[in-house]
């Protein structure tokens, strides 16, 4: 689960991490009061969307005075102008995709006088099963470009969970950033604070870009992006409360309510499969025959009829879907249960696209019988290869 920058900064502040003072602004009419509360003389108006690259982003349907999703203001009036220019617009950045994201929240922050911009992130390194730090002097924007063309500018190390963050980890960070004296001490303290926050809140990724040295000689986190491990959210109701559903795919939210593993994609073939591995194989074979999957969907091993119905409704509600492939291997799952779920859903929402069903395993004959006797125009398939070819040709892509 992702949260907004201003929420991430509030989480980090609890651990003593140095972040600027700021006020979230949800209505243009609140901008003036927020600006006066902070006092200036420099403010930053920051678009809050779950995507990076905001500074270099561009608003859709450009208007006079537009200048990206992060703007420096030098007076209360300027803050008010920028807020009213940015709220409600759609911002397109390198990370949003061409559709962009609507800016419904802004964050007004104290402006810093920046001397240097660094990059620092923490993530779970699966190969070492540890939390890793990634640090670079080349911060600001475009860390991907640095990783690609100047990998020697990136320093990475991981922390043994038994010892946790030790002073030498902090010194490694300071050295990688070329800091000495008091700034090195600040880097050491920050390293321990960020590690503590990461572990305590079950984060999956924490990215500070930029981490800056201000003209007053202070190390400060000017941007913060956090993703939390969804499997640990039950331990953090305070984090779940920060969820902004308008940032998430409506189909994925609906799927999570039914405990379905669903990821929306861009293709035209809706897939309903049991088991993540089989779902991946199904997506691969759809591509092999020339079409693209509209989603990844694993209904799980022990899906009930209601769960299958819910899954089918989510697939058919997607306007991109031009055909549906149901591919079920009945092990724990029984084919007749799947068949009943599919038919119940078709009865409820109708069937406007071709539907290919491939069933195999426990109670397969009963499952096929239920589908054959339903009276709906369902195309039966014998195996995965046959199923993929049938659905791809049914949508006219073969
Ligand atoms: P994004 O990464 O989405 O573009 P950032 O929060 O990193 O958004 O902001 C982009 C740039 O704007 C930063 O690299 C920094 O140079 C500048 N910036 C951001 N916040 C502040 C601030 N509080 N004071 C001064 N400059 C800032
Ligand atoms: Mg940034």
Structural account:
The chain has 398 residues and is α+β, with helices and mostly antiparallel strands. It folds into three domains: 21-110, Dna Ligase, domain 1 (2-Layer Sandwich), CATH 3.30.1490.20; 114-239, 2-Layer Sandwich (D-amino Acid Aminotransferase, Chain A, domain 1), CATH 3.30.470; 250-394, 3-Layer(aba) Sandwich (Rossmann fold). The protein is built from 13 helices and 19 strands. It is elongated. The structure holds adenosine-5'-diphosphate and magnesium ion. Magnesium ion is lined by residues 52, 209, 223.
Keywords:
single chain, 398 residues, alpha+beta, Dna Ligase, domain 1, D-amino Acid Aminotransferase, Chain A, domain 1, Rossmann fold, six-stranded antiparallel beta sheet, four-stranded antiparallel beta sheet, 19 strands, 25% strand, binds adenosine-5'-diphosphate, binds magnesium ion
Concise account of the structure shown:
This protein has 398 residues and is of the alpha+beta class. Helices cover 34% and strands 25% of the residues.
Helix share bin? 25-40%
Radius of gyration: 25 Å
Number of domain modules: 3
How would the global form be characterised? elongated
- Given the structure, what is the number of helices? 13
What integer is the average pLDDT? 94
List the helices and strands and how they pair.
Blueprint: H1 5-13, E1 22-25, H2 31-38, E2 43-47, E3 58-59, E4 70-73, H3 76-86, E5 90-92, E6 101-102, E7 106-110, E8 114-125, E9 130-136, H4 143-149, E10 154-159, H5 167-176, H6 181-200, E11 203-214, E12 219-221, E13 225-228, H7 237-240, H8 250-257, E14 261-264, E15 269-273, H9 276-288, E16 295-298, H10 305-316, E17 323-330, H11 335-349, E18 355-361, H12 364-372, E19 378-381, H13 384-394
Parallel strand pairs: 15-17, 17-18, 18-19
Antiparallel strand pairs: 1-7, 2-4, 2-7, 3-5, 5-6, 8-9, 8-11, 9-10, 11-12, 11-13, 14-16
Helix pairs in contact: 2-3, 5-6, 10-11, 11-12
